[in-house]
Amino acid sequence: MTYVVLSMIVIVAVAAVVVVYAAYPHRDREIPVIPWLGGAMRRAKDAVTVVEPDGTHDHDAHLAASLSDGRKRRSRSR
């Protein structure tokens, strides 16, 4: 029972951090009550490598090609 309660507390804490990040530092705003947390989140954001989409890849074409790999499917009628 204690494990479940501690797990739920950790889950809620992580969710709160995500919501605070999405509401303030992600939009380049300061967190009003705890500005040191916003600074830490901003430094973490700058330290993480992000892959930006370049628009040259057509994911729908890749998906269609992977789904139709040239093999004919057997019919299931008997």
Features:
78 residues; mainly alpha; 3 helices; flat
Per-chain topology:
Blueprint: H1 2-23, H2 35-47, H3 59-67
Number of helices, counting only DSSP H or I runs of 4 residues or more: 3
Measured by DSSP, the beta-strand proportion falls in under 5%
Q: Which class do the helix and strand fractions yield? A: mainly alpha
Number of strands: 0
Mean pLDDT: 77
- Describe the main β-sheet briefly: none
What is the CA–CA distance across the termini? 53 Å
**What characteristic shape results from the CA principal axes?**
flat
Give the SSE string: HHH
How would you characterize the overall build of this protein?
With 78 residues, the chain is mainly α. Helices cover 56% and strands 0% of the residues. It contains 3 helices and no strands. It has helices at residues 2-23, 35-47, 59-67. The longest helix has 22 residues, at 2-23. It is flat, with a radius of gyration of 23 Å.
